[in-house]
């Protein structure tokens, strides 16, 4: 069994999918988000979309960094994580504007004071204000902040986004209107880097995002944190999988000539691709056959949404940035598990024709985001994924 599973988490969320198997999957079951008839407006040409997600266990890293350094501003990044994990999933079905957001924060009041809540709430509004400059309007409609110390050891930061969107502007992967193309054999895959510093970021982004943080935290950080902050892990876990690394949050790594603490690398706010995708969805909508946000499931996420009769080949991915090398070496984690858990430096995939790939790459680069053709789609008798890594070729069968 992998360390990831031993820590009580799952990259593929098998039990969750089993639990919801009898629920209504919406109008487009193969779409990246569930979509339903326009219950709110009663217009058959529109859909309703509601999406829930959050920062996951990344909030524990913010807690550790704040307690060790006194830097309370790290909580603003957690607000961004909770928002972007919703927003960028909505982007993958074509939604980029006129969205409403509702936050849900559960905290242990004995450990998380009001000042932290202020950072999270104000950080949310600051992100919305920043996105408004790019024509992306997200309306913050409040939410629930609960003091549940008997349930939550530190804090959980989550949110929900809702939108009404015209069917003719959806990316659904199925039941396509006349003239629209979905993901198909012959497509190429344009990958957008998750790391670096793009035009709307204020500092270097490690690219980690908000997936796999349980693994990253315990593999990289030392037993010091288990001893000093027992509230940051499940006491029923085997102590051999708890904080087994060698590093402190304040240790530093050289990244592009700059010294950055490991804590800051682990806490880099999840990058949103909203500004560039707004441009693409408005100016190149017909060229986009599919969008995949490589979140839970990492580089294997695409298998849930591509047709069953294709082979996905990713043989030109970005070289994994520093943070993933650090995590892999710290936990001696096999490449297969790394690519199933983490985005490995590429968190968005645009499926398009070869002739349109250049325009999509150019749009990303104009925002300071590295982009390139990372692979292709081929016809196949059965769904499969092939990833070329430094360690060799990895093969994954479809569901």
What does this structure look like?
The chain is an alpha+beta fold and 399 residues long. It has one domain (3-206, 268-397): 60s Ribosomal Protein L30, Chain: A (2-Layer Sandwich), CATH 3.30.1330.10. It contains twelve helices and 14 strands. The protein has helices at residues 3-6, 14-19, 58-69, 74-91, 114-132, 213-220, 223-228, 262-266, 274-283, 322-331, 335-341, 357-366; strands spanning 36-37, 46-54, 99-107, 138-147, 155-166, 188-193, 252-255, 258-261, 290-293, 310-314, 346-352, 371-379, 384-389, 392-397. It has a seven-stranded mixed sheet with strand order 9-11-6-12-10-13-14. A five-stranded mixed sheet has the order 1-2-5-3-4. A two-stranded antiparallel ribbon has the order 7-8. A hairpin with an 8-residue loop joins β1 (36-37) and β2. α3 packs antiparallel against α4, α6 crosses α10 and α9 runs antiparallel to α12 (357-366). The longest helix has 19 residues, at 114-132. It is globular, with a radius of gyration of 20 Å.
């Amino acid at each position: 069994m992998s360390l990831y599973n031993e820590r009580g988490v799952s990259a593929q969320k098998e039990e969750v999918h089993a639990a919801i198997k009898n629920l209504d999957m919406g109008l487009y079951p193969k779409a990246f988000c569930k979509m339903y008839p326009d219950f709110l407006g009663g217009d058959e040409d529109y859909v309703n979309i509601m999406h829930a997600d959050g920062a996951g266990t990344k909030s524990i890293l913010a807690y550790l960094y704040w307690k060790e350094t006194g830097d309370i501003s790290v909580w603003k990044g957690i607000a961004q994580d909770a928002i972007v994990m919703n927003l960028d999933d909505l982007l993958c079905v074509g939604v980029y504007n006129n969205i409403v957001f509702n936050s849900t924060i559960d905290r242990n009041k004995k450990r998380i004071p009001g000042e932290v809540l202020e950072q999270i709430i104000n950080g949310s509004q600051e992100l919305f204000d920043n996105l408004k400059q790019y024509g992306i309007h997200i309306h913050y409609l409040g939410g629930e902040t609960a003091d549940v110390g008997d349930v939550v050891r530190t804090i959980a930061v989550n949110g929900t986004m809702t939108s009404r969107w015209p069917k003719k502007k959806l990316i659904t992967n199925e039941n396509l209107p006349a003239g629209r193309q979905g993901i198909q054999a012959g497509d190429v895959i344009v990958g957008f880097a998750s790391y670096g510093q793009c035009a709307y970021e204020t500092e270097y982004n490690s690219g980690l995002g908000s997936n796999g943080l349980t693994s990253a935290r315990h593999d990289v950080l030392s037993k010091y944190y288990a001893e000093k902050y027992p509230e940051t892990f499940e006491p029923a876990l085997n102590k051999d999988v708890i904080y087994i690394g060698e590093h402190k949050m304040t240790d530093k790594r050289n990244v592009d000539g700059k010294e950055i603490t490991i804590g800051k690398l682990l806490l880099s706010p999840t990058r949103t691709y909203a500004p560039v995708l707004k441009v693409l969805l408005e100016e190149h909508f017909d060229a986009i056959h599919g969008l995949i946000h490589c979140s839970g499931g990492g580089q294997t996420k695409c298998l849930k949404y591509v047709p069953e009769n294709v082979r996905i080949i990713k043989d030109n991915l970005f070289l994994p940035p520093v943070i993933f090398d650090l995590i892999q070496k710290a936990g001696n984690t096999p490449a297969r598990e790394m690519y199933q858990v983490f985005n490995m430096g590429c968190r968005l995939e645009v499926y398009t024709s070869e002739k349109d790939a250049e325009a999509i790459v150019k749009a990303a680069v104009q925002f300071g985001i590295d982009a390139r053709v990372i692979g292709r789609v081929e016809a196949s008798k059965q769904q499969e994924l092939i990833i070329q890594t430094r360690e060799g070729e990895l093969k994954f069968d479809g569901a």
